[in-house]
From TrEMBL:
GO cellular component: GPI-anchor transamidase complex
Keywords: Membrane, Transmembrane, Transmembrane helix
Transmembrane domains' residue ranges: 570-591, 648-665
Protein name: GPI transamidase component PIG-T
Amino acid sequence: MEIPSLVLFFTLIGQLLFIGIAFGSVIGEEEFHEELVLRPLPDRKVMGHFHFESRAPPSNSFGRHHHLFPKAIAQLVKKFQVKEMELSFTQGRWNYEQWGSFDPIPSNNAKPPGVELWAVFNLPQEQVDASWKNLTHTLSGLFCASINFLESSTSYSAPEWSFPPASGSLRYGTLPREAVCTENLTPWLKLLPCRDKDGLSALMHRPSIYKGFYHSQRLRLTSIASNLEGLGPGIVLEQTLTVVLQPDNQKNMMYSSKPNLQPGWSMSSIFGRKVNGRCMLAKSSNVYLQFERGLVSELKNLEKENGKSGDENLALEGFLSNPYFELSIKPDRIFQEVNNFHIKGPSIIYEFQVDKYSESLPFDLGLTWKIPIGWTCQQAPLHACRFLMGSGNERGAIAISLKSIESIMSSLDANSLDGSCKLQVDIFQVVPWYIKVYYHTLGVFVDGKPHAVRDIVEKIHVSPSKDKESPGVMEMVLKLPCGVKSAALTIEFDKGFLHIDEYPPDANQGFDIPSAVISFPNFHSNLLFLGDGSLNKSPIISVFQKKSPVLSYTEVLLVPLTTPDFSMPYNVITITCTVFALYFGSLLNVLRRRVGEEERFLKSKAAKKTGPVSQLLSKILAKLRRKKWEPPSSPEAASSSSFINSKLVFKVILVAAIAVCWQYYSG
């Protein structure tokens, strides 16, 4: 009895090994997390940041089957050897002055208008461009967008070190004029396990999202290499959607006696829906309400004015009993940021777990303010602004203005006792080939005074543009004194001429210069929280705690170029066709007309018209006039021959004169 049992045992083991080889070896399990961060903004708006993370562990590449991870993304990574990639669709522009820039969300998710795509390939240099072109076509079909226009060498660049992540196999491209609509959001939602049918993604009501002031959907994937031989890389896919919405506060303002009162809102009022529980395939589903540093600092000042010390009161007990605001749902946990060097103090995050809610008890978080309150968001060390100088369609200049933020710069200046403190600023700018930039005209101004370029610019890399081949790229590292109040960079350019086939359909609108990227490598926008090990299990909290440089995008510049009158070809075609029709019509009419037949026709017609009554009348008239009566000889027929001959000669001369004049003026 023991031998058959052993045979059966080894048979089962062999079948399991065969199934493992056929369907691929997997280390770990696929995971999916969904999270939402809500944040009140100083200008009476609310920011919503959706964060979805899908993980596929390292596995055998043969016969791989995915349970949660989107198969299209896995095939894309394998086909084009993508090491890291980010794609964003943005409508509107992030308001850095009102909504802040010294924060992980704007630093990582505030994107330029239109489409931005960058990718790092795990390939030799000679194969990177070909993989980039194939990748753009694949993403264009996957997301129903015009990303395939980035395949042209005039539309993308290869940054050396100024754009993170810096790598030799990095390719970067933007389409500032790409329109964003539901056709791009629907394929993005199809990558989620529950799509928009359940969980937090059900809040993405199209009319509510697209009526906002800012909307940016982002997709970022990272390939993680495996240490085990024979296993393919793992993939981490992050999908984020950042929206800035205006609460429906007309009713609150109508009955409020405090004009500066912040509007109260709830999830159902800003998104139009409630959450009926988590996605059943999600490992975690949480909603976070974040009070940023400026708001927390203002609330603490109010606590001190009322005679309360209340740091712990606000963070741990004040969510229900404080006189400043009221939450409709009690939070499950509260996290307070560790205050290291920030002047405004720590931020506070309230966590709400969606697991315990269902259709019978939907989740609808609401915030109601009891007193008027105002605050400012924390800014980057320098506020960047870019604009055009000059006039006309021949030449101009690009200017980048940097203005200091008093609080941050004063603290930096105070810390530098010997005056050797320097503020590093990295600038990355791409200019289309038809903007002929003269890089030797670079000018630097600090506090309104001109400075030598070598005194401020520590490092610079310039890749001049080539006509109809590649754009111009400029990368710079600036070292500014910490006490700087303002700085400006100017560079001159000439406007080129395009072939008529290279103009877009709306050429009179102008041509776009993509946004410049301004980063501060010495400043990091991470948030540090004290807590147990459960904090590391939250993907969004892990992103908040990761060190990333403060980064911002400038405006997209609109440059008017010399544009031809596209109605002229139509006018020329119309006049030419008219002249040819008159010429050939008259010529064919003259060549096909027979004079003898016309004379016989006129005689017969005149004979038919002459009758006895007309002859009698003509005789009576002749006697009255005392003239001799003559029978009618068809005067029409008699004069027709000479008339036709003169008419023929006149037409031929007229047509010949028109043809000669047309050839003369057209030549």
